[in-house]
């Protein structure tokens, strides 16, 4: 694990009322939550206790690259222009960090993954990707492989503004435990899905555009129908998929084979 064993600095995190550590409290909340969107919010809230100001989670079909066109990414805290860039799948596929860290099978700093990738030799598009990261202030961060049943593995990352956070081994261990708890719970929720969801052709169209990150207004323009009608379809999809937000609906639909990207 690429974190110092002796941290010179730590965040001031408060234990629970019964002496419960913040990481234990976060894991308990995550493990009893049944809404994927809420799980992501709990992860982000807990991560801030350890100095992480940005977070991403790559949900990827089995045996696919963590940056493939089929990957669904939930992220928060990144600069808006970076999110727009990363939503472009032709840009995202040049990000080697998630797959490199998954191959290593351990928590790794972004900087270490970059250095080792460059040392092994890489192409110009990847070097341009690394430069875009630096230009966007994405310098200090860690990537974490998380593992689920039946090869349902995923990649999670945390970004920091203060580089001293990465030197805190206890914080790194806590963030890794939180990431694994979140992924485990998401996998469990997928196993509880209904096997009898039937979508109309239009519902499937709307869901596929949701999975590609389009807003209701965007989808209305693409399908040439009103935003109010799209909103109705979205509500109907949430009901059928037992989801409360777009990422959760997308993950469930992909897991059930209702859509493909």
From TrEMBL:
User: Which residue range or ranges hold the HTH luxR-type domain?
Assistant: 192-257
* Gene Ontology biological process terms from the UniProt entry: regulation of DNA-templated transcription
Keyword Oxidoreductase attached:
no
SUPFAM superfamilies per record: C-terminal effector domain of the bipartite response regulators, Pheromone-binding domain of LuxR-like quorum-sensing transcription factors
InterPro entries assigned to the protein according to its UniProt record, in alphabetical order: Sig_transdc_resp-reg_C-effctor, TF_LuxR_autoind-bd_dom, TF_LuxR_autoind-bd_dom_sf, Tscrpt_reg_LuxR_C, WH-like_DNA-bd_sf
Q: Which chain regions cross the lipid bilayer?
A: none
Q: Which Gene3D superfamilies match?
A: Transcription factor LuxR-like, autoinducer-binding domain, Winged helix-like DNA-binding domain superfamily/Winged helix DNA-binding domain
Q: Name one Pfam family in it.
A: GerE
Is Nucleotide-binding among this UniProt entry's keywords? no
Name assigned to this protein? HTH luxR-type domain-containing protein
- Organism lineage string: Bacteria, Pseudomonadati, Pseudomonadota, Alphaproteobacteria, Sphingomonadales
């Amino acid at each position: 694990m690429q974190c110092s064993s002796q941290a010179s600095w730590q965040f001031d995190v408060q234990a629970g009322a019964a002496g419960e550590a913040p990481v234990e409290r976060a894991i308990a909340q995550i493990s009893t939550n049944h809404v994927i969107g809420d799980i992501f919010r709990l992860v982000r809230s807990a991560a801030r206790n350890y100095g992480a100001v940005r977070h991403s989670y790559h949900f990827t079909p089995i045996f696919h690259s963590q940056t493939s066109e089929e990957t669904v990414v939930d992220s928060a805290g990144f600069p808006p222009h970076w999110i727009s860039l990363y939503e472009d799948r032709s840009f995202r596929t040049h990000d080697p960090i998630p797959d490199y860290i998954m191959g290593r099978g351990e928590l790794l700093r972004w900087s270490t993954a970059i250095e080792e990738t460059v040392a092994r030799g890489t192409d110009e598009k990847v070097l341009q990707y690394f430069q875009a990261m630096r230009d966007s202030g994405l310098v200090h961060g860690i990537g974490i492989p998380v593992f689920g049943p039946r090869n349902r593995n995923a990649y999670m990352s945390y970004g920091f503004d203060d580089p001293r956070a990465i030197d805190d081994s206890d914080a790194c261990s806590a963030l890794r435990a939180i990431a694994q708890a979140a992924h485990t719970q998401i996998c469990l929720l997928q196993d509880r899905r209904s096997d009898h969801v039937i979508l109309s052709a239009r519902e499937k169209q709307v869901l596929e555009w949701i999975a590609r990150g389009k807003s209701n207004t965007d989808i209305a323009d693409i399908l040439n129908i009103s935003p109010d009608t799209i909103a109705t379809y979205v509500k109907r999809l949430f009901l059928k998929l037992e989801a409360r937000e777009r990422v959760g609906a997308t993950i469930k639909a992909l897991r059930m084979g209702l859509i493909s990207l």
